Every structure is written in structure tokens, then in C-alpha cells.
Amino acid sequence: MSRNKAVPERRLHHPDRDEIRLESVLSALSDPIRLRIVRELARGHDDMACIAFDLPVSKSTSTHHFRVLREAGVIRQYYEGTSRMSRLREDDLEARMPGLLSAVLGAE
Amino acid sequence: MSRNKAVPERRLHHPDRDEIRLESVLSALSDPIRLRIVRELARGHDDMACIAFDLPVSKSTSTHHFRVLREAGVIRQYYEGTSRMSRLREDDLEARMPGLLSAVLGAE
């Protein structure tokens, strides 16, 4: 299992489930690039390396968007080797704000 | 019916239903004061004058928040005499992004 190779998330802060705030999640999702990241993660139903996203922004802008999503509690990021991987925190979001993520993904 | 007394919305721009954008709605809802306004409107199930909201902000800040909600398509504003009234655009939001408003209102 690839998860076994994961390095501890030493430098990456993630809010605990009960620290996830509605305002922060809504704000994180209110950007088209970040929505696109979330949609790709939801479609993939799997973890994805940041580099696998084909985003029309610079690397540093992309890193910023992933950080906003992580700090809001929308995604979890961790390292596998030198790749930073991301996955949606679907269960945590569903527990905190039921139906929100699916409503966002279902819109338009 | 009080609606008969409504003055045309001459100065207040409202996006049409199909102009309502997910990112704008999420952004509008990502502020605690604006969430509070939306919750009060949802609880009231009725139109409310802006002055009826007891918000911990200045009048101009309050006006700003109502404008952000209106321009995003979350609320409709109109005049009755000299009172600016607001109501949630529940049907429009439900048509454009089903389940989103209720998920936001149900969170926390």
C-alpha cells in the first residue's frame, strides 16, 4: 500500500475535524482554481500528487491555493517521497457541514 | 399585500438567476456577518428591513455586506417607502446550486 511510504506531516498544519470552520471552507471554495482542484480530487476518488494537476497558474500560485484548501480543512496533504500528495477530507467535511461538498460539486 | 407598495428596484442591481455564480455565492457566504444576515432571513421566512438586523457593525459596513449578498444573487433588496427590505433568493439559489443554501444553514 502506497500509504505506508507516507512521511509524517511534520511541516504541514491541518486543522482537526472540530476546528474546521464553515466560513473558512466557503472562502477556500470561492476561488475558481481551488474549485477546480477540489473537482479534480473528487472526480479522481483517489489521492493525487500536486504535480498531476494541470492548472493555468504558476507553481507558487498553485502552492498557495493548495495551502488555502489545506488550512481550511478541505484537503489533506502529505509527502510520498518528494511528491506532495493531496486528498479531499470528504468525511470530515461531511461530518461538519453535511451536504455542502456535494452541493458545491453538483452546482453548474 | 405589502408587495404592492414596493418601489421598482431602479438603483439596485440584481443578477438574473442564470447569472448567479457559485464562486460569488460562496464568497458572499464566507463572512460571519453575512452568514448571520442569511441565517436571520432564513429563520424569519419573510422579508426584513435592513434596520431590523441587530448587527455589531457600523451602518456603512452593514450596507456593504448587504450589497455583497445582493450582487452575488443571495438576497433581493427593494424599497418599501424609505425602508430597504431584503429577502433570500431561495428559489434562485436552489435552482442554480441545489442543496447549497440548506447545507450552509444546517452547518454548525
UniProtKB/TrEMBL annotation, chains A, B:
<dbReference type="InterPro" id="IPR036388">
    <property type="entry name" value="WH-like_DNA-bd_sf"/>
</dbReference>
<protein>
    <submittedName>
        <fullName>Transcriptional regulator</fullName>
    </submittedName>
</protein>
<dbReference type="InterPro" id="IPR001845">
    <property type="entry name" value="HTH_ArsR_DNA-bd_dom"/>
</dbReference>
<dbReference type="InterPro" id="IPR036390">
    <property type="entry name" value="WH_DNA-bd_sf"/>
</dbReference>
<dbReference type="Pfam" id="PF01022">
    <property type="entry name" value="HTH_5"/>
</dbReference>
<dbReference type="GO" id="GO:0003677">
    <property type="term" value="F:DNA binding"/>
</dbReference>
<dbReference type="InterPro" id="IPR011991">
    <property type="entry name" value="ArsR-like_HTH"/>
</dbReference>
<keyword id="KW-0238">DNA-binding</keyword>
<dbReference type="InterPro" id="IPR051081">
    <property type="entry name" value="HTH_MetalResp_TranReg"/>
</dbReference>
<feature type="domain" description="HTH arsR-type">
    <location>
        <begin position="14"/>
        <end position="108"/>
    </location>
</feature>
<keyword id="KW-0804">Transcription</keyword>
<keyword id="KW-0805">Transcription regulation</keyword>
<dbReference type="GO" id="GO:0003700">
    <property type="term" value="F:DNA-binding transcription factor activity"/>
</dbReference>
